[in-house]
Structures are given as C-alpha cells and as structure tokens.
Amino acid sequence: MNFKQLGLSDDLVNILNNSGISIPTPIQEQSIPIINQGKDIIAEAATGTGKTLAFLIPLFETINPKSDEVQALILTPTRELALQITNEANKLKEVKDINILATYGGKDIGSQLKKLNNNIHLIIATPGRLLDHLERKSINLSKLKTFILDEADQMLFMGFKNEVEAIIKQMPKKKQMLCFSATMDSAVKKLAYRYMNDPAIVSIKKEEVTLNAIKQDVVETTDRNKRDALCKVLDEDNPFMAIIFCRTKRRVDELEVILHTRKYNCVKLHSDIPQNKRERIMKSFRNADIQYLIATDVAARGLDISGITHIYNYDIPENVESYIHRIGRTGRAGEKGYTCMFVDPKNMRDLDEIEQTIGFKINRRIVEI
C-alpha cells in the first residue's frame, strides 16, 4: 500500500516522497480513508507511529485556502507538541498555501493577535492560550469543520478536561472530530463519545514491535552510587544522541549540574524552563548539537526525534506504561535502540512489575565503579 493508493493528490504524494515518506504507517493507512470520508474517529497509537501525518494529510486535502474562515483546529497538551505539529504542517504547505497559526503559552500574544488579522485556516493550540483568544474574541470557531484532539489521554492526565469542554462549546455541533491518543482508557472514551457522532475505532498496538527492536539492560546500584554508575555507562556507550529520564524537575536540575561539572554535552528540559529557551533546546537537540537531553516525562511526551540511539532511565518510571513510552523514543523506523535503567533496592517491586508486564527478566549490566 502506498499513498497514491490511499487516494491522495499527486502533489501531496510528491511532497511526502521528497521528504522520504513513501509508504504509510499502519495508523495512516487505517485512519486516512476514514477521515477522508468525513467520519469521526477515535485512534489509539503510540508516539512515533506517524499519527501526526495521519490527521494532517487529510486536512491538507480538504482545507480551502480561498476561504477566510478557521476551518480546522488541532488541540494538543504541550507547547513542544504544538511546535512539532506546526513544523510538520509547514512542510506540507508546498501543496496548499494555507495560513497556520500556532498559539501556545509563553509566546507573545501580541504577535499572535497581529497574525490573526490575516485569514487563518488552521490553528494548532494548547488549551489555555486558545481559551484566552476565545475570551478576547480574537478567534472565532463558529465555522470550524474539523477538530482534532491530539494526545487525549495526556490532555486529561494534565487536568485539561474543563478547558477542552469549554473550547468544544464554541464550535458548531456539526463538525468532524478526530481523537488521537496513546492509550484508550475509559476517561478518553467518555470524553470522545460525548461529543462524537458514531466514531470509527482504530487501534494500532505498537509496544510489542517497539520492544523487539530495543536492547534493554538494568544496572542494580544504590542511590548514592547512581551518579557514578550512570557516568561510567555513558563513557562506555558514548551514544550519538540520548535522553536521560528523571522523575522530577528537581532531579533533572541536580543531574544536569553534576553532568555539566563532569563535562558532558547535556541540557535539561522541563516545564519550568521558559518557552523560547525550550524551543532553542529542542532545535539544538534535533540538530544533534547536544548529546544528552535530561528530561521529565511530561517534557519529553510526544517528542519524535530521529537519531535517538539510547534511553537512560536514571530514575525508574512510575508505571509500566511510562517505561514503555520512555524507551519507545528509540528503536524507531526499523533502527535498533538501547535502553538502560538504574535501580536501587527500593525500586525492586517496580522492576518486578515491569518485567512481568513485558514478559521477561531484563538483562543485568555489571558496572565497575
């Protein structure tokens, strides 16, 4: 199956081919025909499965650049995701010159208001900033045709349910709604079914495939020796690009100071860092100018960066799902990946739970420090 067989225009197929994208991923193959029929959809797919293009491609087929109405809205929980989706959308603008507004907290609202004087066709937004615009009446959703709720599970986890519902109330009842989520729990289904019209369900199970491409190790250590064990592993591996996960912002801050002092090429990423700085950090990391990104789960949610060869779990994740999300940042698109988790005695119960869920005992890596 190729994109031409999915019924896409030649221009769109050519742009995708020029970007090295010639074969649709399973989520794209299953979702695009349903979306093109104008149906509502609930799609479950992990990060890195190509879901952003699964909803952007149909949008670029249907948006009318001659209209001066807002025709589509993509709502996403974090600034990083809003930016990432905007970058993908801008790559497709060669097909159709539509006006795109990315609106999220931390960006100057004045420049966004100025841009709104032009005809905006597609808005990519985080909930808080979009509500701000709706209250100012600087954005009008009354003629909206398509609403995409991206990372719906994370949206609810971060407490945006009321904001999402307030935004939906500003839209026409008759519209197409697309709900994309990494997990399809009852809260997501409840929200989706309340506002959707007989949605099609698409579920792509990616976790098993991801794990097959990733070599997993565990280093048993103590909290006191964890830093030295990590540094020893980093020196032995010398990865091309890696993310080091910590549980809290404070742990990220502490580890960054230690690794900087020891002359590692690293930078931290969490929600307390100003937005413009976060954007610069992500650009540098994507360009491989930074070797190690030290991050919390929320900051790294949804990041789909090619070239990440290694994932280090400096702190054990809070649950199995989080572990799978974290390590799924590597081993992408047929490449091999490596992940190493540092556990101390108090983490053993959590480690048992992870091993039971994935169905095998993770290899123990011996580190001499």
UniProtKB/TrEMBL annotation:
This is DEAD-box ATP-dependent RNA helicase CshA. One of its GO terms (molecular function) is RNA helicase activity. Residues 226-369 form the Helicase C-terminal domain. Residues 1-29 form the DEAD-box RNA helicase Q domain. Signal peptide: none annotated. Its EC number is 3.6.4.13. One of its GO terms (cellular component) is cytosol.
